Amino acid sequence: MSIVTVSNLCKSYPGFSLWDISFSLEKGVITGFIGRNGAGKTTTIKSMLNLVHPDSGEITYFGLPMGGNEAAVKARIGYSTGTVNFYPKKKLGELLKVTSSFYPNWDEGVCKQYLSLFALDTEKTVSALSDGMKVKVNLLLALSHHAEVLILDEPTSALDPFSRDELLDIFLHLKETGVSILFSTHIISDIEKCADQLLYIQNGSLLANESLQAFMQNTAQSGETLEETLLRLERSARNG
Q: Are β-strands 64-65 and 77-80 bridged in parallel, bridged antiparallel, or unpaired?
């Protein structure tokens, strides 16, 4: 069942255009979003969150268009677009208290579980946290209100290998509970470990929107890994 639908999304900047992006996210499915820097991943995600305004296209959540329903939609989704960078002088405990007031489904028990799991100190200020810890704070905020959809831009990029593996295990657990997850990444092993679906974007256009298994069957050459396949496709595009 599609719970998020992106239809014919277009956004133009000087020197770059996101063109006719269409895909859906299914309940209980993990979708990996891959593409080189500047390909359009972040623009797509920010458009989905209404952080940038697309030139055209439609984005719906739970059958509701994002436009006109942003507050209702965001109460049911979690999102992270990098490291937390607001209220740098506030203690983490104060930040959590402020954030929880915006979510009717905020769960203090779940929040405390992730605080323990991520080894986060509520007495530390945000500015005192490492980049990896700031990523964990953003994920904590996204995970603590029983979100039905998680939309995450490079959620594992600043994490050490152990923490990254831990987070991917959390993704797999959330999938089993019916949560839909979209995450962009440059770390191919993360895709291989947990993604069911693959979105592959190149120069603002979506080249693949299919299961990971189907992508490998349709696109990989004999003996290639996923990383080797993607590198070959990128080299081919660069060389014309």
A: unpaired
